[in-house]
Amino acid sequence: MSTIVEPKNHTTSESPSTTGVFDDVDAAVAAARKAFETYSSCSLTQRSTFIDAIRKAASADEALNFMATSAVEETQMGNARHKVLKNYYAATRSPGIEDLTIQALQGDSGLTTLEYAPYGVIGAIAPTTNPTETIICNTIGMLAAGNTVVFSPHPRARKISIWLVDVLNRAMVEAGAPENLITIISTPSVENTKKLISHRDISMLVATGGPQIVNMVLTSGKKAIGAGSGNPPVLVDETADLAKAAHDIVTGASFDNNLPCTAEKEIIIVSEALPTFMAEFQKAGAQVISEEKQIDKLRTMILNEELTRPKTEWVGKDAYDILTAAGIEAEPDVKLVTMITDPQDPLVQVEMLMPVVPVVPVTDYETGIDMAVDLEHGNRHTAVMHSRDVRRLDEMARRIQTTIFVKNGPSFAGIGIDGEGFATFTIAGPTGEGLTSARSFARRRRCVLES
């Protein structure tokens, strides 16, 4: 794997440069604030030019491979091949200024337009699960809306986050942009994150991560977008194309070793379809653990003592490595670990963020929908269903009320990967913006011209 190299012109509060990297929160915010004052006079065409520079820099083959391998190396989680794809979609399919459509109302009394205006300097907190993807898509959307950004990276993704901000800043400056449109705090900590959140020059906050950090921004008293955790259920009924369902679930749930909060976390299946599905599931790359002692050992190994959250050291690890560490002989091409269990199993109730996805049989699809609603825990994040019955698909969509609902496909189709629609890695269920884009980071402004 690549060794992560710090940017040559590493910035400190004492020696500012064009890279946007600062040791001090105040210095990072001040630089972004100064950049905003200049950026405010840039035209939409100029914004688009700067965003094109971001897309080009972030989607270059060398950058894609470096970001992917470096993120896996630094965070010790995920799949480099899949991260290449995620970063590519973030760079090429995150909406830019085209997302900022103006609404016009014309009548006898004149013309009123509803436009988008920037907030100012946004404080954005990035996760360890999707560090570079989040920085790329947030940067594109926030700058398209006319803002500048200060990033607070996750401590375990610090180096690659600094590298990326440096690269994107340099690309924009070369395209004629003001310096420091995006800045980053090079010393991430809880204290510095709190300082960023409460900083008087931060007008808006965006947190992509777990419930603790989302709650911090939501109680800040500022405009905040919270993209929190999920526990996405997938329901398979007896009418489904079971071979396709099995393939799609393995593909979606093993994607980046199940790190995306959108990935299938537990499977609910109508009992009538269980035998055929499990056979197809194994063909697709799932390894079934059936001995209770092995399941108990696996559960103890990957969950904390209270069985309430996954152990960090196993989050985003390969299925083969998880099985081997548990003393279970792993099939050479295993992509996903599974077992048949009951809905109260902690492996079902807890968002595991690893390629361990349990199967829960139910008597009928109505019971399955009830269970899916319960297991989603009210996060309103993501759910998936495989069925040939359109009425059932519509019923589950209405009942579960998730931000993303995928019908007959892998979960990642819901975030624009091999699916229609734009891509994003900040999915705001708690605050209702849904799949965020440029317009999510802009204020609505009403301009009135009287006749």
Description:
This is Succinate-semialdehyde dehydrogenase (Acetylating). It is a single chain. With 451 residues, the chain is an alpha/beta fold. 39% of the residues lie in helices and 18% in strands. It is built from 15 helices and 18 strands. The protein has a six-stranded parallel beta sheet, with helices on both faces. It has a five-stranded parallel beta sheet with strand order 13-10-9-14-15, with helices on both faces. Helix 14 packs parallel to helix 15 (390-400). The longest helix is centred in the middle third of the chain and has 17 residues, at 158-174. It is globular and about 70 Å long.
Kindly state the mean pLDDT as a whole number?
Answer: 95
| Biggest β-sheet description | 6 strands, parallel
Instruction: Please tally the helical runs, counting DSSP H or I stretches of 4 or more residues.
Output: 15
CATH uppermost class of the largest domain: Alpha Beta
Question: Helix coverage percent of residues?
Answer: 25-40%
CATH topology of the largest domain: Aldehyde Dehydrogenase, Chain A, domain 1
Strand residues, percent: 15-25%
Physical arrangement of strands within the biggest beta sheet = 1-6-5-4-7-8
Q: Structural class from helices and strands?
A: alpha/beta
- In the CATH classification, which architecture of the largest domain applies? 3-Layer(aba) Sandwich
CATH H-level superfamily title of the largest domain: Aldehyde Dehydrogenase, Chain A, domain 1
